[in-house]
Amino acid sequence: MDFIPHTDAQRREMLEAIGAASAEDLFADIPPAMRAGELNLPAGHSEIWVRNHLEHLAAKNATHLTPFVGGGFYDHYVPSAVTAILRRGELYTAYTPYQAEASQGTLQAIYEYQTAICRLTGMEVANASLYDGGTALYEAAMMATRLTGRNKIVLDSGVNPIYRNMLHGYTRNLNVAFREVPTACGPTPRDQVEPFLDEETAAIVLQNPNFFGFIDDLADVVDMAHRVGALAVMSCYPISLGLVKTPGEMGVDIATGEGQSLGLPLSFGGPYLGFMATRKKFIRQMPGRLAGVTHDKEGRRGFVLTLQTREQHIRRQGATSNICTNEALCALAALVYLSLVGKEGLKEVAQLCADKAAYAAQRLDRIDGVSVHRAAPFFNEFVCDLPVYAGEIVSGLIEKGYAGGFPLAQYYPGMEKRLLVAVTEKRTREEIGAFAEALEGLL
Amino acid sequence: MNLIFEKSTPGRRGFRVPPSDVPSRAEIPQALRRTRDAELPEVSELEVVRHFTQLSQRNFSIDTHMYPLGSCTMKYNPRFLEDVAALEGFSRLHPLLPQLRGGGILTQGALQVLYEVAQWLCEITGMAQFSMQPLAGAHGELTGAMLIAAYHRFHGNRKTTVIIPDSAHGTNPASAAIAGYQVVAAPSNERGVLDPAHVKDLVNDQTAALMLTCPNTLGLFNRDIRTLADMVHAVGGLMYYDGANLNAIAGWARPGDLGFDVVQLNLHKTFATPHGGGGPGAGPVGVAEPLVPFLPTSVVVKRADGTYALEYDRKDSIGYVAPFYGNFGVILKAYAYMLALGREGLKRMAETAVLNANYLLARLRPHYKVPFDRRCMHEFVLSAAPQAKKGVKALDIAKGLIDRGIHPPTMYFPGIVPEALMIEPTETESKETLDAFVDAMIEIARLADEDPDALHRAPTTTPVGRLDEVAAARRLDVCFPLPDDAAQA
Fold first, then answer.
1. Which of A294, A336, B167, B410 has the most CB atoms in a 10 Å sphere around its CB?
2. What residues 240-259 of chain B have any CB closer than 8 A to a CB of chain A?
3. Distance between the two ends of chain B, CA-based, in angstroms?
4. pLDDT per residue over B332-360, tens digit each?
5. Domain residue spans in chain A?
């Protein structure tokens, strides 16, 4: 099955117009010695065959498990209208809106998305998207080094461990030094952070809620950074921002985050959405595209890509980032999601997540030998201590039909008996109760 | 058209959040709460659907218009790819499941997809192994540059430069610079490609890599590619293949056979996954055997018993470039597309892409300047310099095409061609559509002679006319102000 419309007669006609004897002739620039032989690949298949094959593979994945796993990626409800809008070919088969007049739909949507992210985070300006929460955090750290002319980054241990790993990897060949705050399975330890901050610090990188699910008012930590002339970067969970204090309210300079929870399926790790927002005065060092308002000669409002001189297609090696293709369609999903749930709905979704997590924590706490960490309030994810290895409990829970949480020892050696449990608005009281009973039954 | 924020009516709802069914209430202290609500739109579901449907109607897209945007490979995106990616067995799959037990026993279907796509890509490119992790083309370039750095570091070398042609995509020098390299620009010769005679002077023991698109952004294949590879390898450097233009040669030639060591592909170009208005894409990276140890964490392996697993314990790996296994939903679509095409379809894809481009070139040659007039591959570049002398620039031609129902080609790129128009029709456009494009281009060339002002006024058929980009940058408005902020201003 291919998607080529030509008839044989048309091919001949076209070859004739070109003055080529055969299709083979068109490849004359590739010397015979450089040609590929017959590739060792299967023959093509019909749509029906491919669909059956993929349904068969899809059935081999354990999506029947009731999910209590989060770790930064959550099973939130995606309203049907989000999916329906994303399926409009006029939107998903377009590309980067370089031709503004022929792309007003995409451009206006980007402007609206930027606005929604600003209102969500309490920040002044947002870009048109980055790949994911991890690369967004890396871009923010690099942006902080450019803005401050300094090269030291202080990393809080509550930042997603994979993101921290990514930051190290990306900067391996660059002159960037990291200091990691010692691990605390709780809110950011102030006394441990302060000694790391000095005149060489470009930024402190924080996360709220942190990887352990704790929420915090980090305004004082942000102040500590500002006192030494450093910036504060914070990775956020957008659904939580329906309730919790925003990075803007805490004085954060660059807010980033993973936007998957805003209308995107889990889809085994992507495509997701990195968002970034900052202060207006930092905009020229912000990576990624930006849509802005302008007008035509008749005075009609329209939208264009703006400040493109920051970008690779103009500035080449001097660009703020190498990003070109971003996550435009995922940003659109987030915008449609935020428009649907709206001002009140977002608060309600956040409250529901928090209430159900509170209920789950209460149920688990009642089990003999299980205790929930309550060093600080949590949002929709919490740590519990188990009397046995968390990995084994999770294995047992799989047998009973639950993806029962994330064993923290995967990332934090020494936390073998700690389980990270996430609850979203989709979980019902019955599911939570049955989950608690299943866990109890394994002890 | 009003913004969704301008359509907001206090108290209106677009989605009903269910009442809580649990007896608990989360105790979140006031000090940790936001003090002001996020001022999101308050609109009904119909208002949302109508708003975004109307926005969609203000777009050109492959589904509605021919879209010959050079180097972007805007081919048809088959519909069944969307259905495949939406299968619940994939879309509901949490990326941390493989870490819960047995390294992936809960996700065998998904891992098989990742493994088989990588195998396909190895065969198509002649690489030894692929990582599916990079999330877009430029992200793949950065990953490739990091792999090159890791390779040299492992061998005790501190090479400092990457050579990149002056015709390269802007992402190439940007990616090399972000990975910590100095960029050395190499000039194209009078045939539009890199010349071994020039490159010889640039290659030295500081050369970490030569980064190339082949065929290049002019749509030209470099017959000297192996000579260039030999020169770079002779000083211990590596050859990097930017696969943005793989659509020209897939099934016909393999970068590995041409002397390349690192290859990044853009699944959203060659493998028909939708561009999404600017993403998501996928930029997998393949490497020759000596670079395999450095590939990102994790890689999917097939065990002797036929099951698939994720391998994390790789001491020389550059680590994670993305949190998980890449843009899996995009990779799935590319997989379904490959299965549909098969060996023969893949070859016919490239052959027809090249046929279509050469057909357009042959028909447009009498009407436009062709700066490198030779047979092209999947795309070619025209210069509107003669038209510009009459006052009709490449920009005016582009806007004239919009009024004729055609998305313009890439303009003003590559920068080495004045008034460049870079045209890539792809294999999925019919002869009738190609002819309509030619007719429009000929009519525009005639107007350039007879009535340039008609083109200066274009476009007139779009919701807005030409927009003032200078004003957009000067009076920066990238966020709609809150009602009370607007009142203050």
1. A336
2. 249, 251-254, 257-258
3. 23
4. 999 999 999 999 999 999 999 999 999 99
5. 66-76+342-441, 80-337
